[in-house]
Every structure is written in structure tokens, then in C-alpha cells.
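Sequence in, structure out.
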Amino acid sequence: MNRSVVAVLLGLVTILASLVGAARGEAVKVDFENAAVGSPPPEFSTALTNGGKPGLWVVERNDPGNALVQKSDDPTSGRFPLCIYDALSARDVDVSVRVKPISGEKDRAGGIVWRYRDPNNYYVARANALEGNVVLYKVEGGKRSDLKPVGSGMFAYGKKVDVPSGTWSTLRVDAKGNRFAVSLNGQHLFDVEDDTFREAGRVGLWTKADSVTAFDDLQIEPHDVASP
């Protein structure tokens, strides 16, 4: 049996193991190491909020290993490419991902999506290298609105923090009930409380406008689990 066939079989085994673990409500880690380079990862589906070109999500070789990259740099304002993990649906979930903003003149951002119902309804926490901040939003009916950190004023907008371009950072959201804790590189930044989306939903990845962004080591630990 040649090496390419072995690689494909190993990849299928890894994907099946992830799907079984997700169905049981176990923690899942997706590192894209066994995914085919140049293609989207098979356990994910893609979507788009609002107009513009669809996102181009492909696995690429990226130091130190494979990573998932959103490569389309269409600058359409309010364009949010999505890549959704299909094997798990949960209401309360702890999600982290390594994110590396690569390029973008209008935006240079990457985020975590949770309680995803459809391309127009979900929560997202994103880190933006151009703005130097992390902000949590709800997207409801296709309209994005920032949610204020607990204890902040009406003019607050997430948290100012260094988000370097071309370097990996780890973004994390721990969602329990109506309270969401957001961290970057192990530092707790803020909490948000919101009751818009109370039901279980999927987890995914997000970019904005012309952001070209890499993602790796997606980890999902459901506190509860529902059927996908």
C-alpha cells in the first residue's frame, strides 16, 4: 500500500474518531494534520453572512504544521465568511483556537462562533490585529451588534489588547448559560451577559471582509451536547 493511500486512510480514521467523540459529548481537538492540503476540511461546512464572495477555506502547510486558512480577500463591508464544525451541537461550551492574522487592509481578524443557528444568527468573539482589540458580538438577522463587557459603560467596545499579525495567538470563549468569558493567550479579558440565543448550536470559525487568517488547534469542550 503506497504512502498516499495510507495517509488518506489515517485521515479518515482521525475524522471518524472526532465525530464519534463529538457525538458522545467528549472534548474534541481538530489540528488539521490529517486533512488534505489544498482542500477544505471534510468535517466542516462553509457559509457566508451578508454579501460578497464566498470564503475560500483550505488546509495549508503552515509552521509548525497544517492549518486552516481563509484565503479570500474580498473587501466587501459586512462580509463574514464562516467555517462551521458539523459534528457537534451544544449550548454551553468551552472553545479555543489558535489564530494568526496574515493580511487585510480593511480588516485583519479571526473569531470563534458558537450557538450557530444559521449564517444570520450566532455569537462571535473576534480578535482584530488592525484595531488591536477583542470584541464579542451577536449576529441576529444578519445584523452584527457588539455586546458590552459586564461592568463597562455604554461606550465600551470589547477590550484593547495587542493582537499581532503574522503570529499565533490563542482565543478562547467559555459559554455557560447567558454568560460568556473571553480570553486571549491565557489572559481573561472580559465577560458578557446576553440572552438572545438560548438554544444549542454549532461551533465554528469566522473572518471579516478582506481578512486572510489562519486557524489551528481548534478545541471544543461541550458542557452539554445535543444532536447535530
